[in-house]
Amino acid sequence: MKQHLRTTVLFVILLLLAAASLLYGLFTGTVDIRPGELLATLSGHGDSLQAQVLLQLRWPRVAAAFVTGALLGMAGTLMQVLLRNPLADPYVLGISGGAASGALLAMLLGLGSVWLHGAALGGALFSMLLVFGLAHGSGSWSAQRLLLTGVVVAAGWGALIGFLLALAPDGRLRSMLFWLMGDLSYAAVPVAGSGVLLAGLVISVGLGRSLNILAHGAQTASALGVGIVTLRRVLYLLGSVLAAAAVMLAGSVGFVGLIVPHLLRLAGLRDHRLLIPATALLGGSLLVVADTLARTVLAPRQLPVGVLTALIGVPLFLALLYHNRQGLAERG
Q1: What's the CA gap between 224 and 211, in Å, rounded?
Q2: Cβ(247)–Cβ(32) under 8 Å?
Q3: Cα separation, 312 vs 96, whole angstroms
Q4: Based on the number of CB atoms within 10 Å of its own CB, is 245 exposed (0-12), middle (13-18) or buried (19 or more)?
Q5: Which of 44, 147, 289, 323 keeps 20 to 30 A from 316, CA to CA?
Q6: What pLDDT, on the 0 to 100 scale, is given for residue 3?
Q7: Quick one: which of 264, 298, 258, 301 has its CA closest to 279?
Q8: Contact 277, 201 (CB under 8 A)
Q9: What's the confidence (pLDDT) of residue 332?
Q10: Which residues of 101-110 are buried (b: 16+ CB within 10 A; e: fewer)?
Q11: Inter-CA distances, 289 with 22, 307, 309, Å
Q12: Helix, strand, coil percentages in the chain from 3-state DSSP, rounded to 5
């Protein structure tokens, strides 16, 4: 009963945090907008300039940031269970590198945003298939083999990215670097991304019981009747698609998928049927706040949102490591 109450309180806090982050993103910017003006704009009676700022500039960007953060949070949780490694994040298997290579190639060729998004998605999916095919090979499939293959493929993508940046003309280099570090400047309302998010949420929560068992080890899961091979393939495919959708929306945004699951596990969430939707809420809220700071802290200049997530994520992750070290020392 006590645990149920604690979980309920935590979800209420996460929902309030999500609402507060969205309002913060809508209100904050070079054009000041107050709550009453927001309601007037939504009802169709607001100032035309404010309506344009809210509906055409801020809302698409805030929505894209929330969906991207939610995708990264969920993908990070799935990857950590799949690899049984708390340091795994959505990009550990080379998905980000494949997407970045495809997007940077489209930028280098001067293609439009539709081609850019398509190239990013195609590069991510190609990298996913490449890693899975190489990791499976003709032998047994294992999380360690998948992780090692992903690291090697990611290194290869890194070399290709460096080559593309070296070839880029000065006029396109800035935009390429911004996208590479995470950029929501040209974000549109994420209709497709929202669809991927909802589908991934439904599938992940449905797999929650199996994920809880797999988290205790492959042997335990096999003994309890969980189809390990099928479950791992589903997790890899689902986590890769979620990460690919996030990269397609905002480029390479780090630390969200790594930090968010850790924070929620420290808060007491272990059941993946609850942890996964919680990571979506907290990941979305975190990225909305980070992106709002990225576009306002040095206004009118804008920072890549990946810079802000790194500035937030590095000290936070070090604090988590220190907390875990203290706990281990006390148990020892």
Answers
A1: 12
A2: no
A3: 20
A4: buried
A5: 147
A6: 75
A7: 264
A8: yes
A9: 43
A10: bbbbbbbbee
A11: 8, 13, 10
A12: 80, 0, 20
Runs of H (alpha helix) within 28-58: 35-42, 48-52
Element (H, E) at 18: helix 2-27
Q: 3-state secondary structure string, 64-106? A: HHHHHHHHHHHHHHHHHHHHCCCCCCCCCCCHHHHHHHHHHHH
The reported pLDDT for the residue numbered 70 is: 96
Looking at 207-251, list the stretches that DSSP marks H as alpha helix, in order from N- to C-terminal side. 208-214, 218-223, 228-250
Q: Which residue bears the tokens 């294992």? A: 142
Helix (H) or strand (E) run with residue 307 in it: helix 305-331
Q: Which ranges of the chain have pLDDT less than 50?
A: 327-332
Residues 79 and 289: beta-carbon distance below 8 Å: no
CATH code reported for the domain at 2-331: 1.10.3470.10
Would you say how long the chain is, in residues? Answer: 332
Supply 299's token pair. 């206004």
- Cα separation values, 186 from 48, 64, 95, 210, Å: 21, 10, 22, 39
Q: How many CB atoms lie within 10 A of CB 265?
A: 17
CA–CA dist 49, 189 (Å, integer): 19
Contact 238, 208 (CB under 8 A): no
pLDDT of residue 118: 84
pLDDT tens digit string along 221-246?
777 778 887 888 898 889 888 988 89
Report the distance separating Cα 23 and Cα 38, nearest Å: 10
SS3 at position 297: coil
**Two tokens, residue 43:** 């009802």
320 with 262: CB under 8 angstroms? yes
CB 167 within 8 A of CB 104: no
Of 80, 78, 82, which Cα lies nearest the Cα of 70? 78
